[in-house]
Amino acid sequence: TVHDMQAARGTSLSPDSGPTTHTSVRLFAIVAALTLVVDQVTKYFAVAKLQDRGPIEIIPNVLSLTFFRNAGAAFSAGTGFTLILSLIAIVVCVAVVRMATRLRDRGWAIGLGLLLAGALGNLADRIFRQPSPFKGHVVDFIDYGVFIGNVADIALTFAAIVIVWRTWRCISIDGS
Questions:
Q1: Rounded to whole angstroms, how far apart are CA atoms 57 and 34?
Q2: What is the Cα–Cα distance from 119 to 86, expressed in whole angstroms?
Q3: Burial 80-97 (b: 16+ CB within 10 A, else e)
Q4: pLDDT digits (tens, 9 = 90+) for 118-168
């Protein structure tokens, strides 16, 4: 307990039982890399198999696979600002990588890894897909009935949940 730690002279009050920075950074990198690979592979198959066909229902009226090229952000907002969205994604990626060097918390490592993968996944589409570099359209194909997204969007959603949860619990990226 904190009281026991305070009783021992010279004992640090910071938690020592958590993972090391090296372990957390490794977890961050693994989560980011695996999620990015899954995102890009599923987009490759969406383009190859879904582009020229109608929706494939998985769960009727709930979930289907529907090919869509999204020129904007979430819900196709900001379709005229693809270059700005690309620049924002680059800034986010740089900030996340810089933050990751201070990681000592598994939750934050997972959250930031998902955030990086989601941002990179959609950024890669904007850079490398048609109509032109930094103005490319993001491949969306998971149709929830209300909106259409992709694995990168799912990663961003879970990243937000994890980051809000860790913040709400007052746990910082260094585990304190």
A1: 27
A2: 9
A3: eebeebbeebbebbeebe
A4: 999 999 999 999 888 888 889 999 999 889 999 999 999 999 999 999 999
Residue numbers annotated as active site: 140, 153
Given a contact cutoff of 8 angstroms between Cβ atoms, the answer to whether 141 and 45 are in contact is: no
Rg of the chain over CA atoms, in angstroms? 20
Picking from 124, 125, 128, 121, the residue whose alpha carbon sits closest to that of residue 154 is 121
pLDDT of residue 125: 94
Q: 41-69 pLDDT, tens per residue?
A: 999 999 999 999 999 999 998 999 999 99
Q: For residue 127, which amino acid is it? A: I
Name the H helices within the chain: 2-7, 21-50, 82-100, 106-128, 151-168
Q: How far are the Cα atoms of 5, 75, 152 from residue 42, in angstroms, in the given order? A: 49, 20, 10
Sheet of 63-70: strand order equals 56-59, 63-70, 138-143, 148-149
Q: Which two tokens stand for residue 166?
A: 């860790």
